[in-house]
Amino acid sequence: MSQNIYDRVQANPKFAELVKKRSSFAWKLAIVMLVVYYSFILVIAFSPTTFAIKLGEGVTTVGIPVGLGVIIIAFVLTGIYTQRANGEFDELTRQIKEEARSEK
């Protein structure tokens, strides 16, 4: 990419909007994941008997489905980010690229 196009992209207000929206959204999802993960770790550290409670007559404890829930939440948050990235963020990127090319 030539320096001229690079400068036009950076000067585009839609580029600043894209960076702001994408960063804000990514940080919100990261905070949600960190809260979930560290809550899980804190329960393990300070109340290990909570996750040791057996479910039914077998060997499965409360910790197993909670741990799986943490993993599932990570996948769901990734899906949410991907969906928004493929929609709103890609559309803004397309508009920025078109405007940069048309200003030649």
Automatic annotation (TrEMBL):
The record's listing under InterPro entries reads:
DUF485 (IPR007436), Inner_membrane_assoc (IPR052959)
Q: Which GO cellular component terms are attached? A: plasma membrane
List all membrane-crossing ranges: 25-46, 58-81
State the UniProt keywords alphabetically. Membrane, Transmembrane, Transmembrane helix
Pfam families to which the protein is assigned, alphabetical: DUF485 (PF04341)
The protein's name is Putative membrane protein
Species source reads Sulfurospirillum halorespirans DSM 13726
